[in-house]
Design goal:
Elements: H1 3-20, H2 28-39, H3 47-70, H4 81-96, H5 104-118, H6 123-137, H7 149-171
Helix pairs in contact: 1-2, 1-3, 1-4, 3-4, 3-7, 4-5, 4-6, 5-6
């Protein structure tokens, strides 16, 4: 298993534990440390794990509405914790990751592999479908030209944030 794949596995397990224990952000450093010892002892560095986990937590108010939009028949709380957190990581890497380190197709494939390993029988297909939809909605960055990644991602993110602000404004 490659070190980046192992790091994603540890990140997913950390997010799962965080979610299972009531999504208390104050516990995340302890959870990551524990999971690095338990599952990531072969990793030289835990920086990528921390970047993924903290990035997902920081951006979840943008990421979760995207999951709901791209899987409308599955409210976020009804998606299994494993699938939900794999989707969060995949979307984080698609929207906020460094494409020179992890191209979009790699991020999607890694998420599918995690779903097949840790999820249920149909998790791989579900994750593939949702992330494929997100990728298409983003304008398929790097499909033809990687230089338009930032523009397309920013446009998509702006639309999501604008919609979320309207929803929050209506509930206040």
């Amino acid at each position: 298993m490659g070190s980046r794949h192992l790091a994603r596995s540890v990140a997913m397990q950390s997010l799962y534990e965080w979610d299972f224990n009531g999504d208390n952000d104050d516990q995340i450093d302890e959870i990551i440390s524990h999971n690095m010892v338990e599952f990531g002892s072969r990793l030289d560095d835990n920086i990528f794990v921390k970047q993924l986990v903290n990035g997902v937590l920081e951006k979840r108010k943008v990421i979760d509405p995207i999951i709901e939009k791209c899987a409308p028949e599955w409210p976020i709380e009804q998606i299994t914790m494993v699938d939900r957190n794999i989707l969060r990581m995949g979307i984080f890497e698609l929207m906020f990751g460094e494409y020179d380190e992890t191209p979009p197709k790699v991020a999607i494939n890694e998420a599918i592999e995690l779903a097949k390993t840790f999820g249920g029988e149909s998790s791989g297909k579900f994750v593939n479908g949702v992330l494929g939809t997100v990728y298409r909605e983003m304008g398929e960055p790097m499909k033809d030209d990687e230089s338009d990644k930032n523009k397309k991602t920013e446009e998509f993110t702006d639309k999501v944030i604008e919609k979320e602000a309207k929803i929050e404004g209506a509930t206040e």
